[in-house]
Each structure stands twice: as C-alpha cells, then as structure tokens.
TrEMBL record:
Keyword terms of this UniProt record: Cell cycle, Cell division, Cell membrane, Cell projection, Chromosome, Cytoplasm, Cytoskeleton, Membrane, Metal-binding, Microtubule, Mitosis, NAD, Nucleus, Phosphoprotein, Transferase, Ubl conjugation, Zinc
Compositional bias segments (type: Basic and acidic residues): 350-365
Name of the molecule in the record: NAD-dependent protein deacetylase
Family matches, as InterPro entries: DHS-like_NAD/FAD-binding_dom, NAD-dep_sirtuin_deacylases, Sirtuin, Sirtuin_cat_small_dom_sf, Sirtuin_class_I, Ssirtuin_cat_dom
Length: 389
C-alpha cells in the first residue's frame, strides 16, 4: 500500500481540491462569458502589481472599520455589487454536517467502509470503481431537512434589494437554492447535490435530487437508465475540476465588486480562499465568522496571492471582522440597515412554508404504499417545487 496521495501537505482543517486549472471541465453550465476575461485578467494583474509594488494604496471607503461603517456604506447607495463568499459555517445552524471537511469526526468514522485511505471516499478514480462507500456515507449524512438559515435569507434579501452581484459558495447542501437564489445568482464552487449526472462522457444524462435521494435511501447504486453508467451527484470530487463557471464568473465579478462579505469559511481551501484578493484594493471586505481568518500567510504569499485580510494592523483600512455566528452577524447587520424585522419575518414565513410542505410530503409518501423504487421519470420535477432554474 502506498502513501495516501496528496494528503500529506493538506491543512488540518479542510482539504484542498487538486487540479484547479482553468481549462474546460465537462461542466455543462458554462456560460461562455470568456470574451471580456482577458481584460478582467489584466485588471487583476494591474491590481496585484500596484499592491505588490506599493504604488497605489487602496482608497479608504469605509468611514469606520466596524459593522456600523459597513452598514453606512451600504446605505450610502455607492455599494451595488456585493459578493458573498460562504462556507460550511453558514449551514451549521441548519444541522447540515460539514460533509467533506475533516474535523467533524467524519474521517474518523470511515473505517467501516474499508477504504485504502480516508480521502479515497471522495476521490473520483476510487469512486468509479467502488461507489458503495460514498453512497453509504451519503445516506448516513443525508440532512433530515433542508431549511436555510437566517444567513441564507439575508443573502436572499441582498438579491431582492438589487445589491447582490453573486454568491460564491463552497457548500454542496443546496440551501442557497432553497432560500431562493437561482442559478445565475450562485456559483457552487465545489458543486452541488442538487443535480446528478451519468459519469459516462458519451451520455452525461442529468438526474434530479429526488431521483438521487430515492436511490440513496433504497441502498441502490444509482445507475443511468439510458446507458447503465454510474450516476454521481454533481459535487466536485478530488481529482475533478471546479465548475468552469467558477473561473469565468470570478474574472467578471471580482474586479467589479464594491463590497465583499465573507461568511462561515476559514478560507483554507484553494482556489476559493484566494478570491478575497481578487477585489480591487479599495473594496471593503467584511468577515462574519467565529474567528479571524484569511490574514496573509506564507502559503498564499508563495503562490503570489497578495492581499490577505488585515483587520488590526496600523495599515488596516478596509477589512472588518465581526466575530459571531453567521446568523447573529447577519441579524446585527440587518438591524443596522433597518431590515431586521423584515428579515425575521421572512425567515419565519419561509420556515413555515417548508414545514408545511414537509408535512404534505410525508403524508403523501405514507399514502403511496407501493414502494415506488422503480420507473420514476427523472430530471423533470425538482425537489423544491417552487424553485426553477
Ligand atoms: Zn448514462
């Protein structure tokens, strides 16, 4: 048995995704936005050089490095392209286990699957030969309920108020979609459980979450009904590229961002973490997290990613850390913006709607006593009936 590939140099908190090259992946949602990307790339380089050479120091946009300062900036009307970058921390209050990251005890619990090494369960080559452990784990960790958090609905409010440029998520739990963000609002950098595809390159037939859930809970290995190939949720496995949209949208979005809000991520996973340095050097950056993160570290420096977060030094001029849970942080910001009541009512209303739909679904499934493990048409209806792409 050889060493676990690529595992030795990982950070202890979260694992990194190899192959972040910007080549085409087989992701079908490529928007073909590449036309202006050369220009955006030049903007990025210009920014990087001016920062590195200390040429143009960033402009101080916030009147105060605090949540109040951020709120006043949002209210000033000068801030219309907010990007949210979110990670597992925004879903923990929804009871979603941190599916892929060690630290949840997940990797320690994998012995029963007889893996050659723990990470194999999320490695694409291993999965294609031995899909059983992954689906057994998916069943074990499958969320009982998909109920977005206050934080998810806060992001939705930014969208409704015309302030959200895009939300970049590392999560695969689909809660952004349940909260009402749609395909174009969202970059699921590490993929999603929302859709699945046949792994055969020639086929690539798409399946929805209901179809996949049924397979997972009936302990069936999901097989394509067209070509009998293996069907895999569209989450990014180790050894797979990030979705092409991640790279094309990133180049368009970040140079135009006028406020970056980073929530519930320890900024340990590349290339996601390096996004914070892609905004202009005047763009304010707000971190809502349990601890400070993203400050310049040797690793980021080595790869040429400057622009680590600076909350505390004498030179700090644009970064704000609000240390709390994501829900508390969003409520506090909503309060300062005068949106608190609206947000709380929105959350209550949406949660009631999800609860009543759950009840209906349960009642329906107990009435349908026929098992229904076969012959269901995939790909048409989505689990969240009122969401569409
Ligand atoms: Zn197929």
């Amino acid at each position: 048995m050889s060493d676990a590939p690529e595992s030795s140099d990982k950070k202890e908190e979260e694992t990194s995704i190899p192959n972040p090259e910007e080549d085409e992946s087989e992701d079908s949602s490529d928007e073909g936005e590449g036309g202006a990307s050369g220009e955006a790339e030049m903007d990025f380089l210009r920014n990087l050089f001016s920062r590195t050479l200390g040429l143009s120091p960033g402009e101080k946009v916030l009147d105060e490095l605090s949540l109040e300062g951020v709120a006043r900036y949002i209210q000033s009307g000068k801030c219309k392209n907010i990007i949210c970058m979110v990670g597992a921390g925004i879903s923990t209050s929804a009871g979603i286990p941190d599916f892929r990251s060690p630290g949840t005890g997940l990797y320690a619990n994998l012995q029963k699957y007889n893996l050659p090494y723990p990470e194999a369960i999320f490695q694409i080559d291993y999965f294609k030969k031995h899909p059983e452990p992954f689906f057994a784990l998916a069943k074990e960790l499958y969320p009982g309920q998909f109920k977005p958090t206050v934080c998810h609905y806060f992001i939705r409010m930014l969208k409704d108020k015309g302030l959200l440029r895009r939300c970049y998520s590392q999560n695969i739990d689909t809660l952004e979609r349940v909260a009402g963000l749609q395909g174009d609002d969202l970059i699921e950098a590490h993929g999603t459980f929302y859709t699945s595809h046949c792994v055969s390159f020639l086929c690539r037939k798409e399946y929805n979450l209901d179809w996949m859930k049924e397979k997972i809970f009936s302990d069936e290995i999901p097989k394509c009904d067209k070509c009998n190939g293996l069907v895999k949720p569209d989450i990014v496995f180790f050894g797979e590229n990030l979705p092409a949209r991640f790279f094309t949208s990133m180049k368009m979005d970040f140079p135009r961002c006028d406020l970056l809000i980073i929530m519930g991520t320890s900024l340990q996973v590349q290339p996601f973490a390096s996004l914070v340095s892609r905004v202009s050097n005047s763009t304010p950056r707000l971190l809502i997290n349990m601890e400070k993160t993203g400050q310049s570290d040797a690793l980021m420096g080595m790869f040429g990613f400057g622009g680590g977060m600076d909350f505390d030094s004498e030179k700090a001029y644009r970064d704000v850390a609000y240390l709390s849970t994501c829900d508390e942080g969003c409520l506090a910001l909503a309060d300062l913006l005068g949106w608190k009541v609206e947000l709380e009512e929105f959350v209550k209303r949406e949660h009631e709607r999800i609860d009543s739909k759950d009840k209906q679904d349960k009642a329906k499934s107990t009435n349908e006593s026929s098992g229904a493990a076969e012959g269901k048409a995939p790909g048409v209806e989505t689990e969240k009936s009122d969401k569409k792409e």
